[in-house]
Amino acid sequence: MKTIALAGNPNSGKTTLFNALTGSRQHTGNWPGVTVEKKEGRLKNHEDILIQDLPGIYSLSPYTLEEVVSRAYLVNEQPDMVLDIVDGTNIERNLYLTTQLLELNLPVVLAVNMADMVRASGNTLDLKKLSAVLGCPAISISALKKEGLDELTAELAKPQPAGHRPDIFEPQVVQALEEIQKLLADKVPPQSLYWYAVKAFERDERVLEELHLDPGQTGRLEAIVTKVEKEYDDDAESILTTQRYDYIERILAGCFTKKATASSLTLSDKIDRVVTNRWLALPVFVLIMWGMYTIAMGGTVVSIGTMGTDWVNDVLFGEWIPNGVETLLTTLGVGEVLSSLIQDGIVAGVGAVLGFVPQILVLFFLLSILEDCGYMSRVAFIMDRLFRRFGLSGKSFIPLLVATGCGVPGIMASRTIEQDRDRKVTIMTTGFIPCGAKMPIIGLFAGAVFGQSPWVATSAFVIGIAAVVVSGIILKKFKVFAGEPAPFVMELPAYHWPTLTNLLASTWERGWSFIKRAGTL
Ligand code: GDP
Ligand code: MG
């Protein structure tokens, strides 16, 4: 069995590629870090090759949980090959991780994704040259349009030599790294020696802890690093980062040409001018949310969700099934108590839960559209400015939004928030969001008291948000949660049309887990 680790930046298309290569179903979304868990699947037509999906990461530094997980896997488990997926439209930044992966002394295959967008942008990237400098195969693919996947699969199936280490660093650093390698030679496995030397140079806390250096060795390491720091008048980590980017710039100069354009605004940028506009962003957002809730569970005139739910409640579980069951029970001559248990208990109970399935499916479908087309990332971006005031970060919005489906995955989604403090406050406030289980209650009130007004569901949403805000403010006063939220960095993938299979798959996945859990309960 050959194991291939799939590594790449968040939003480089890892999940899409993983699905295309393995054929297994997995949820794809637009926010960074949706793939927190390790997933694996067999390569199509190659049962003996296992693809291990790693979390999306920008580097092998231990800043986020994802980076810790990914690098521990790569260094300790030593997969047979690394499939590095890079976003061809963001090639400079994506190659930063590539330079680090090439230092792991493992065979690397580079998949340059988003070929469709690269073509549309008019930029040209010479992959033959890139592959020659990096010393690893580089294949142009589009995970979404399923281009170049056969060629990629062929490379993955072939045996590849271990990645050759590119000449990234300047002589002073190279020399320091050599000295550190001598220092660590008997401490770590030889194939990872270089990687450990780089991390020791960066004073990576986790690696230093793992190495158990004695005071003499620590002193020598410190001397080597400090000498270079003095020469550059910079700290060790920044020195390496700068030289990595300089290296990328050098190699791209030989193989990448940007199209000279009069206007650099893409269609996506133009949409963002409105949708993330300082003044328009919030009104547009409220309008979209209102539209979504109206279609999913508003008044019967426009709401597909409510129409479906009414049909399930009034016809399917109102007449068909109860009548059928009653006839059956009478024919069988079932006793009154058992008959009542089945009819009034099981059938009515399950019916009450399943009645909400149409609404929930419509809601999940609409959410999937927003995710798949790229709007959801904008939501986090828009909300950040607002959420900062309440001690939350923009990334808190994603858990809160997922919680509109169910609080449990909502709280689970908070794992994508790096800072412990932000994550805890998010977890504590996420439960206020009206979720699938609260919808029946809201629906009941809307029907019984407010004549099915769509404003009830909308205002329940707003009140939920208000509860989150107020508790955020309260929690901020506590000492454990005080302090500034972490700076928010997130990229906005270009808008694109959602794919129907993605939408149906993720709607079904979420809907089915609701049916299974709520229905059986
Ligand atoms: P991950 O965060 O690395 O798992 O990335 P995803 O697989 O979730 O993809 C991020 C976004 O890029 C999604 O909206 C995908 O539909 C989109 N995407 C992935 N591959 C391609 C591609 O080849 N072309 C285009 N245009 N979009 C893509
Ligand atoms: Mg993913």
Please characterize this protein's 3D structure.
The chain has 521 residues and is α/β, with parallel strands linked by helices. The chain folds into 3 domains: 2-157, Rossmann fold; 171-256, Helix Hairpins; 286-302 and 356-520, no CATH class. The chain has helices at 14-22, 65-77, 91-101, 115-121, 127-134, 149-157, 171-184, 193-201, 205-211, 215-232, 236-255, 267-275, 281-297, 304-332, 336-354, 357-373, 375-387, 397-402, 407-413, 420-430, 439-448, 454-476, 500-520, and strands spanning 2-8, 39-43, 46-53, 81-87, 108-113, 124-125, 138-140, 256-257. It has a 6-stranded mixed sheet with strand order 2-3-1-4-5-7, with helices on both faces. It has a two-stranded antiparallel sheet with strand order 6-8. Strand 4, helix 3 (91-101) and strand 5 form a beta-alpha-beta unit. Helix 7 packs across helix 8 (193-201) and helix 13 crosses helix 22. It is elongated, with a radius of gyration of 27 Å. It starts with a strand and ends with a helix. The protein binds guanosine-5'-diphosphate and magnesium ion. Guanosine-5'-diphosphate is lined by residues 8, 10-16, 28-30, 34-35, 56, 113-114, 116-117, 142-145, 372, 374, 493, 496.
**Gyration radius over CA:** 27 Å
**pLDDT under 50 segments (min length 5)?**
27-35
Overall average residue pLDDT: 85
**Portion of residues within helices:** 55-70%
Total tally of structural domains: 3
Structural class: alpha/beta
- Number of continuous helical runs: 23
Q: Name the bound molecules.
A: guanosine-5'-diphosphate, magnesium ion
Strand content: 5-15%
Main beta sheet: 6 strands, mixed
The number of E-state strands comes to: 8
- Outline, from the CA principal axes? elongated
The largest beta-sheet arranges its strands as 2-3-1-4-5-7
Distance between the termini: 41 Å
